[in-house]
Amino acid sequence: MKYELDGRYLNIAIDTLFTETIQDFFDAYIPSKKIQHLLIQNKWILMDGNPVKRESEIAGVNLNINIYPEEYEYRKLDKDNLNVIYEDELFLIVNKPKGVLVHSDGVSEEITLKQMVESYYFDRNHISAIPIHRLDKETTGLVIFSKSIIFQPLLDKLLNEKQIRRSYLAFVFGTMKEGEVLNINKPIGKDRHNANKRVIAKNGQSALTKVRSLGTNLKKNYSVLRCNLDTGRTHQIRVHLASIKHAILNDELYGGKSDLCIRMGLLADNLDFYHPLKEEFQYVECALPKDLEKLFQDVNC
User: Fold this and answer.
1) What is the per-residue pLDDT for 41?
2) Is 136 marked active-site?
């Protein structure tokens, strides 16, 4: 579809839509019944500037949608240190540093990635700052935020339907021959003795991690693995790799300390997603931190 952003309104050229009524458009792009209701009730959706009903036929020049209808109370941080990798009307993708929670756990008072994004939008506080997935505190890499509450349910749906695909690099103990492929299909459940830990459990949730070795360093006894998630369980990659005796470097919960790098050796370094407005898949990646880049360059030695 063709569209342009005019202030808070997304103006979509009607002749590029393949939907006949407003309800058809809702079914395709706004899966939340609550948001549909608010769009009609609050006149956040217009056709050539005029209010519409669900049964209204889509005809005219532009469909006008207020995609940033609310305002939020954001706090400006002295330093947000936000590393923005990609941004458009709907998506903000940032590179999360190690040791930072994506959002508050209700206990820690440390600055979260969500607060850093809110600070980034301090002078544009009509933009939402809602993560649509998360990374563990010690994991580095890409996190997607929804900028619009109107389209957030669609982004959630795309994630659930695996039209947003995330890929990880894992730096692990032990050697795995370059090119070796594994599908780790083991259910994961909570550890009865440690609330923060997960274990392989017969009656746990199904979990599938697809692993391919990119290379190994025989002298230093580590390997670099490409991991793709078919499911998204808590600590999934960490638990699965530990279960095959290839725990992640510096994963103190499931493996052990290593002097090879200064962080846990897990990086969400790339993702691709279907952009519902551009109607195409897009690929986003981030650079490796220096310590992991050095390990990556030294495999197959």
Assistant:
1) 97
2) yes
